[in-house]
Amino acid sequence: MADMRLVIVGAAGRMGQALVRAIADRDGAVVCGAVERQGSPLLGKDIGELAGTGPSGILVCDDPQAVFAKADGVIDFTSPAVSVEFAALTAQMGLVHVIGTTGLEAQHENSIARAAEGATIIKSGNMSLGVNLLSVLVQQAAKALEAADWDIEVLEMHHKHKVDAPSGTAYLLAKAAAQGRDIDLESHSVRVRDGQTGPREPGTIGFATLRGGSVVGEHSVILAGEGETVELTHRALDRTIFARGAIKAALWGQGRKPGLYSMLDVLGLS
């Protein structure tokens, strides 16, 4: 089988360059295009040289339609509005579209779901294989430990440049906990505590968000009972883990029918 031809969008950013390097080390896939925003000072640069893998002959461009036409799939760690735009385009072309973008709101999710009628979309708040395994463990733990006796808190820390909070991974883990408890996350979540808040409301799921330095990503789900706590933790030490997961998702999606999938589908854990 021929190598899967992948376009990297947001290609000149830290995640985009990590993807280029990871694909260079992986059999079964090649980079066939690199897209950046209009006006980027890196337009026209060789993506291989930017990523440190050597000259590739693939120049960074701002014309997604032209490069998508040559591709089998797209890997997308950009912004909510851009991911929605690209999802509509991949649906028109019947491509595999891996979305690792975070900060998606309901209208973005709805637009992506509609696009999945024509594209094979694999979307996750975190592409790490370890985090997605952790989400399954969190769901099981939340189901096993009764809400009346066990409180759930989600703690996350990221680098100082991250723009959304709580993180997409924190939401992913909190949703897993809510599914384990068979409750709606939005109506049971506590995002902020400040001042005289009163005692903790039973059955809620709390979020705590930390930002600083160059932390790639640290997430803990704490289940606190009377006289004991259980803590489930994942620490990302390198962005390459997200790149490897995204590439695995793209390869898994090749040849599958259009639809909206998650990393749990990729791992056989759904």
Structural class: alpha/beta
β-sheet strand percentage: 15-25%
**Cα separation of the termini:** 27 Å
Shape: elongated
What oligomeric state is this? single chain
Low-pLDDT parts are none
Count of distinct strands: 12
Order of helices and strands: EHEHEHEHEHEHEHHEEEEHEH
Q: Characterize the largest beta sheet: strand count, sense, and whether it forms a barrel.
A: 7 strands, parallel
Q: Taking Cα atoms only, what radius of gyration do you get, to the nearest Å?
A: 19 Å
Task: Describe the protein's architecture and organization.
With 270 residues, the protein is α/β, with parallel strands linked by helices. 36% of the residues lie in helices and 24% in strands. It has helices at 14-24, 47-51, 64-68, 80-93, 106-115, 129-144, 168-181, 185-188, 240-253, 263-267, and strands at residues 4-9, 29-35, 60-61, 73-76, 96-99, 120-123, 151-158, 189-190, 205-211, 217-225, 228-236, 259-261. It has a 7-stranded parallel beta sheet with strand order 3-2-1-4-5-6-12, sandwiched between helices. A 5-stranded mixed beta sheet has the order 8-9-7-10-11. β5, α5 and β6 (120-123) form a beta-alpha-beta unit. It starts with a strand and ends with a helix.
Short recap of the structure:
This protein is α/β, with parallel strands linked by helices. It has helices spanning 14-24, 47-51, 64-68, 80-93, 106-115, 129-144, 168-181, 185-188, 240-253, 263-267; strands at 4-9, 29-35, 60-61, 73-76, 96-99, 120-123, 151-158, 189-190, 205-211, 217-225, 228-236, 259-261.
